[in-house]
Amino acid sequence: MKVLELAEEEDNMDGKKTNNFKSRLPRLTTAELNDTEPTDIHHRRLLVRASDSKIPMHARTLEHLRLLQHTNALPSIPSSSRNTDRSSRRRKSRVSNFLVKSKNLIKITGKELIRFPMEIFEIPGIENLILSPEREACLSFKLPRLPKEIGKMTDLKSLVLDTNELEELPIEINKLQNLETLVLSNNNLETLPDQFRQLNSLTDLHLANNRFVDFPHEICHLPKLKFLDLSDNRLEELASEIWLLSSTLVSLLLVYNELRKLPITFSSLSSLKTLWLGHNKLTKLPEDFGDLTKLEWNIEPCSANIDQNPLERPPLDICQRGVSAIRRYFEELEILERNKKSSRRQKQKTKRK
Asked: In this structure, which of 26, 40, 138, 289 has its CB flanked by the most CB atoms within 10 Å?
């Protein structure tokens, strides 16, 4: 396994500062990943393989952590937490549990995110790149932008850029044709470049806690996308062409947004198993919502599914019972409305006589 970890500068034998990147580069084939783990719950980081799981890769509030505990992702949760308000929620990810099983990993944290070592883009064969503060102690050092040279790393399969200050992505990102996992949570993104739709191998996309108001249409054109997390944004509606993901999308997380309605094409997402719509402003669901027969709301109910919405059609208590209950509601409603129409027609005929 090739691992290179870049940290802050160190003093050499002469008391001068040396750059760890240059000093460690010759040992690239033998370096080991330092896998220390803070025990405090506020610093805990975790990763699940999103395409194979119903759990998002970031834990935020105490409520979110309890949801993870419910699905056995965490062994225990403390009874209280200091950081439970929305302004302080920051999704954390621990990627090394996943990436340590892979090969050719570069991990850059601390001051190196500001004094970015451009030489890494010249290293061939790198499959996994982590550019993230990783720990709370490093939050003062964040990546202000992603260099366009990222397009040279065409072997990348996983790119982790969470908890930085990115406001945009370079168009050269479209050259990462082998990229499968892209983590961009906890940044300042409002849009994605048009070329983003050319990431033909992408299966897992994490965009939680950014500044999206409009759903990025480019996402709808990713042919292999299985997992999408757009939680904690400002989305008011979804793209109508979201149906283009119907054959691939398995997990869709939209909790904590401003959604008021779902597009009429939403029920075309027939592969969905996990859907988080909680904490939005939905007042009704599409009448064919019951067609989402693979949705596991019945099997694993949780508050993130649909809670905290002002639902009227169907009422929230019916939605909480699962997809089958929603389907029955609309079927019964259709029969009731049909009978009302028939009754009105009969009354009109009687008046004419």
From this structure: 289
Residue of 149, 157, 170 whose CA lies nearest to 202: 157
Model pLDDT for residues 105-115, shown as the tens digit of each residue: 888 877 777 77
35-75 residue pLDDT tens? 333 333 232 232 333 333 333 444 344 444 344 444 333 33
pLDDT at 23: 37
The DSSP bridge pattern shows strands 17-18 and 10-11 to be antiparallel
Helix (H) or strand (E) holding 64: helix 62-70
Strands (E), 2-137: 3-6, 10-11, 17-18, 105-108, 128-131
Residue 107 pairs in a beta bridge with 5, 130
Q: Which amino acid is at 284?
A: K
Q: Which two tokens stand for residue 123?
A: 């290293």
**What value, to the nearest 5°, has the Cα angle with vertex 70 and ends 66 and 74?**
70
As a whole number of angstroms, the distance between CA 70 and CA 51 comes to 19
The reported pLDDT for the residue numbered 135 is: 63
Intra-chain end-to-end CA distance of the chain, in Å: 89
d(CA 222, CA 225): 6
Greatest C-alpha distance within the chain: 109
Kind plus residue range of the DSSP H or E element containing 107: strand 105-108
The two structure tokens encoding residue 87: 């302004």
The secondary element (H helix, E strand) that includes residue 70 is helix 62-70
Residue length of the chain: 353
